[in-house]
Amino acid sequence: MAEASEQSVEEAGRTREIDPLVKEWEKRLWDLANAITGFTLAQSLLSAYKFGDDSFRSNFKTACMIYGIIAALAIVTGLELFAVAYCRSAALKLLRGGDAAQEALSRELWIGVTRGRFAAVVLFALAPLAGLLGILWQIHG
Hints:
Elements: H1 2-6, E1 9-11, E2 14-16, H2 20-51, H3 54-57, H4 63-95, H5 100-140
Antiparallel strand pairs: 1-2
Helix pairs in contact: 2-4, 2-5, 4-5
């Protein structure tokens, strides 16, 4: 993404540089979306580790408590997906009105990478969900 954004764009026989401020904000939004996705990975790894500990799992005593935590997990995952989508939307708004070829390239790249980030966020939410469902299974099993 950074390479594509930093390249000059050929426009009507002359080279036009993208505004440095637009490039900077696009980079910041890219980094923010990466940080959100990285946070979900860290959250997933920590929960997978903690759910492997019997003393941690023993804190979950009722099914009602687990259902509440599952609902909270769904809300947090939804907010993470929204934040990643908003980063993409804001970056694409920054690029509007500039060079059409550069805008198309950035749009294609942002959309593709955002889909991957969505998949990662959902995948990383599965570890805590699996741990909670395992405890729920023990309670009802």
